[in-house]
C-alpha cells in the first residue's frame, strides 16, 4: 500500500523523487536533471533526480506519474514506490543546496520524499518519439559519483532494490525491446547485477524457462551470424512462475 500525503500528520512538505532507469547498448542509465544556479558569484551547475512536491489534489502515485509524464511525455510506464526518506538535514547538507532552495523560494528546509523507480527501454521509446525536457539527460549509472542533496543515496538504494527485484520478478523485460536476443538478455542481467555469466550455462537456464519463447525471426543486417529473437510471455509466466529468475543459480 502506498503512503498517502495525508497520513504524515506533519506540516512538512512531501515530495516524490523518481529514479528512471533506461537500458541501451549494454549500459544501465539513469535520467538526470541539470540544475543551474548562481552560487558564490558565478553560475554553478550540477545534477539531480527528477522530482517535485506533491500537489494537494493528488496522491503520491499520481504525483510520480505526473513528474515522469512532464519529463518524458510517456504514460503507463513501470513505476514502483520503494522508500520514504525524512532525514531532517537531507536538503541542507551543502551550502549550495541551501542557496538553491532560497533562489527558488522554497518555504521549508525539511521535506519528506517518497522515492520511486521506473524502467524504460530507451531504444523502443525512441521509436515511439520519446522526448525529454531540454535540461534532462541520460547518464550511465556507473559514471554517477555526485548528485544534489541526498539524491546519490536515493539512486543507490533504487539500484539495490532493482537488483533484488530482478532476481524474483520479471521486471527486467521492461528494459528490453518486445523481441530480444539471448545475448541482449544476458547483457541486461550482467550489467544490472554487476556479474558475468557463462554463456552456455545462461542459455541452458533460459531453455528451462517456458515463458521466454523463441519466435521464427532472426536479426537482420548484422555482420555476425544472425541471432534468433525471443519474447517474454507474461501469460505463460503467470501459469508456470517460480520464485526466482536468478540465472546465476
SSE blueprint:
Blueprint: E1 13-24, E2 27-39, E3 42-48, E4 51-53, H1 60-72, E5 78-85, H2 95-103, E6 111-121, H3 122-127, E7 136-140, H4 151-166, E8 179-180, H5 182-193, H6 199-207, E9 212-218, E10 228-232, H7 234-240
Parallel strand pairs: 1-6
Antiparallel strand pairs: 1-2, 1-4, 2-3, 2-7, 5-6, 8-10, 9-10
Task: Please explain how this structure is put together.
This protein is α+β, with helices and mostly antiparallel strands. The chain folds into two domains: 5-166, Nucleoside Triphosphate Pyrophosphohydrolase (Alpha-Beta Complex); 176-240, Winged helix-like DNA-binding domain superfamily/Winged helix DNA-binding domain (Arc Repressor Mutant, subunit A), CATH 1.10.10.10. 29% of the residues lie in helices and 29% in strands. Mean pLDDT is 83; it is low at 1-12.
End-to-end Cα distance, whole Å, is 31 Å
Radius of gyration: 20 Å
The CATH topology assignment of the largest domain is Nucleoside Triphosphate Pyrophosphohydrolase
Mean pLDDT: 83
Poorly predicted sequence stretches spanning 5 or more consecutive residues: 1-12
State the name of the first-level CATH class of the largest domain.
Alpha Beta
Give the DSSP E fraction (strand runs of 2 or more residues).
25-35%
> Judging by the overall fold, what is the CATH architecture of the largest domain?
Alpha-Beta Complex
**Helix percent band:** 25-40%
Secondary-structure-derived class: alpha+beta
Amino acid at each position: 500500500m502506498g503512503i498517502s500525503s495525508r497520513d504524515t500528520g506533519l506540516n512538512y512538505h512531501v515530495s516524490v523523487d523518481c529514479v528512471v532507469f533506461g537500458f541501451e547498448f549494454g549500459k544501465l542509465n539513469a535520467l538526470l536533471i541539470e540544475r543551474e544556479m548562481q552560487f558564490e558569484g558565478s553560475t554553478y551547475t550540477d545534477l539531480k533526480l527528477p522530482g517535485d512536491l506533491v500537489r494537494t489534489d493528488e496522491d503520491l502515485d499520481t504525483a510520480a506519474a505526473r513528474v515522469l509524464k512532464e519529463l518524458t511525455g510517456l504514460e503507463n510506464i513501470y513505476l514502483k514506490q520503494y522508500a520514504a526518506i525524512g532525514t531532517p538535514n537531507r536538503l541542507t547538507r551543502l551550502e549550495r543546496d541551501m542557496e538553491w532552495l532560497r533562489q527558488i523560494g522554497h518555504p521549508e528546509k525539511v521535506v519528506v520524499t517518497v522515492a520511486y523507480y521506473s524502467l524504460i527501454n530507451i531504444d523502443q521509446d525512441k521509436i515511439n518519439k520519446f522526448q525529454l525536457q531540454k535540461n534532462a539527460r541520460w547518464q550511465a549509472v556507473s559514471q554517477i559519483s555526485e548528485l544534489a542533496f541526498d539524491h546519490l543515496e536515493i539512486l543507490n538504494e533504487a539500484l539495490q532494490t532493482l537488483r533484488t527485484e530482478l532476481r524474483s520478478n520479471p521486471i527486467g523485460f521492461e528494459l528490453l525491446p518486445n523481441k530480444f536476443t539471448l545475448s541482449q538478455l544476458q547483457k541486461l542481467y550482467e550489467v544490472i547485477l554487476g556479474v558475468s555469466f557463462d554463456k552456455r550455462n545462461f542459455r541452458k537456464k533460459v531453455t528451462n524457462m517456458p515463458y521466454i519463447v523463441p519466435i521464427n525471426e532472426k536479426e537482420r543486417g548484422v555482420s555476425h551470424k544472425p541471432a534468433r529473437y525471443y519474447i517474454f510471455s507474461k501469460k505463460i509466466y503467470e501459469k508456470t512462475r517460480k520464485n526466482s529468475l536468478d540465472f546465476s543459480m
